[in-house]
Amino acid sequence: MEHITETPTLKAPAERFTGDVHLNMLASPTEPARLAAALVRFTPGARTNWHSHALGQVLHVTDGVGLVGTRDGDVVRISAGDTITCPAGEEHWHGATDSTFMAHIAIVVGDGTGDGASWLEPVTDEQYAAALARTASRPR
């Protein structure tokens, strides 16, 4: 057993995120384990780039309101208590709305060569605005 009392807060790399995003690693795998988990905090308007995970990803929202979008145009508005599962290989993005912070726990299983993430291009301002507009009138 390992009791971890504190993890450093790191600024997420600008080449993978738009806006200010901070993370705390909750679980970093040591062989043979492959499970990684992080608390990720997004400021209003901040979001990930498009990306996918070789073995999928689970997101559990702990605070605020955000969005998750997929390449096929599906977008969902998420808030505290919601859990989203992203299947293996699905290109997606996630982040805060334009007016609220959002925090989630991101859980991934690495593929043996890292965290299994394939990072792609940024979500454009136009894509982000369209996602906000599509979900603005949806009831929570």
Protein model, in words:
- The protein has 140 residues and is mainly beta.
- The chain has one domain (12-134): Jelly Rolls (Sandwich).
- Helix content is 8%, strand content 45%.
- The chain is built from one helix and twelve strands, in the order ββββββββββββα.
- It has one helix at residues 125-135, and strands spanning 10-11, 17-18, 21-27, 35-42, 47-48, 51-53, 57-70, 75-79, 83-86, 92-96, 102-109, 117-119.
- Strands 1, 3, 4, 7, 8, 9, 10 and 11 form an eight-stranded antiparallel sheet that branches.
- Strand 7 and strand 8 (75-79) form a beta hairpin.
Binned, the helix content reads: under 10%
CATH topology description: Jelly Rolls
Nearest-integer average pLDDT: 93
Q: State the name of the first-level CATH class.
A: Mainly Beta
- Number of separate helices: 1
CATH superfamily grouping: Jelly Rolls
Q: What string, H for helix and E for strand, traces the elements in order?
A: EEEEEEEEEEEEH
Low-confidence stretches: none
Structural class, from helix and strand content? Answer: mainly beta
